[in-house]
Design a protein that fits this description.
- This protein has 279 residues and is an alpha+beta fold.
- Helices cover 47% and strands 22% of the residues.
- The chain is built from seven helices and ten strands.
- The chain is rod-shaped, with a radius of gyration of 38 Å.
- The model has no long low-confidence stretch (mean pLDDT 82).
Length: 279
């Protein structure tokens, strides 16, 4: 079953009936018509019970002795069926901030992860009657979906191609939103957005993984330096040969070795003047 619109009238009609009944009852008491006066008081109380106030971005779910009659979404003062129950529910956009969860990624590394979920109620019937507490339902399902999505990806990709939690935050958030919408549709909730708010290695492996990241960064930098050094040496040899300076293989090897050491080394090179000969 889905949300439906309930029969309703302007609540000012109920107020008019209430004041009219009270006024007539007072007049009846002055005319010694006590029974009729009490009947008018009962009518006034009944008319007052039909009135409900709906605030902006709020809905009133109307039930009558256990039967769902419908929902009022429009703000204002409304008149509904007498003696009906009126349950108010917020339609405002709300945030849910998950706690920091400890999860194992796809590689088995323990990580800490948290997310914020932006949602709102779009079906009041499902939110109130299909789940016990839709707010608690959103909380539990959000954490469950976050655990599931986090376990499908590695924290980071060091050598292989593909998605990772750290490198593809937008894609992971989009998948989290899709999975959350599938889980929360039964509660009449629409997921507007979800984002990761915390992502880190667990304390027991944080130091080791930091060293791994540093080593990976050093290797990547060294690879770029070596590639550039080889290009520079090749260019130097070509320019020397273009200017007519011919080097035998031994001298060329010595020059290449010196240039590579000077360029690749992480320390400043110390020049050494050779006053002798290689032979």
């Amino acid at each position: 079953m889905k949300e439906t619109k309930v029969w309703s009238l302007s609540g000012f009609i109920g107020l008019l009936l209430f004041f009219a009944a009270i006024g007539l009852s007072i007049y009846s008491f002055t005319q010694a018509s006590i029974v009729f006066g009490f009947i008018l008081i009962v009518v006034g109380i009944i008319s007052l019970s039909t009135i409900t106030v709906v605030q902006p971005n709020q809905a009133a779910v109307i039930t009558f002795f256990g039967s769902y009659l419908g929902t009022i979404r429009k703000s204002g003062l409304w008149l509904v069926i007498p003696f009906s129950s009126k349950k108010k529910i917020s339609l405002r956009v709300r945030n849910f901030n998950s706690v920091k969860l400890k999860v194992n990624d796809i590689d088995g590394n323990p990580i800490e992860i948290a997310a914020v979920v932006v949602f709102k109620v779009v079906d009041t019937y499902k939110a109130l009657f299909d789940v016990d507490s839709y707010e608690k339902f959103v909380e539990i399902q959000s954490e469950t979906a976050l655990r599931h999505v986090a376990s499908k990806y590695p924290y980071d990709r060091f050598e292989t191609e593909g998605y990772s939690l750290r490198g593809n935050a937008d894609e992971v958030a989009a998948e989290l939103s899709t999975e959350l919408q599938q889980r929360l549709s039964v509660a009449g909730v629409e997921v507007i957005e979800s984002r990761l708010t915390h992502l880190a290695y667990s304390t027991e492996i944080a130091s080791a993984m930091l060293q791994r990241q540093q080593a990976s960064a050093i290797l990547s930098a060294r690879s770029i330096i070596v590639e550039g050094a080889v290009s520079m040496v090749q260019l130097a040899v070509q320019q020397l040969e273009a200017k007519g300076l011919q080097l035998d293989e031994e001298r060329k090897a010595a020059m290449i070795n010196n240039l590579l050491v000077a360029i690749v080394s992480d320390r400043s090179a110390t020049p050494v003047i050779n006053t002798g000969t290689l032979y």
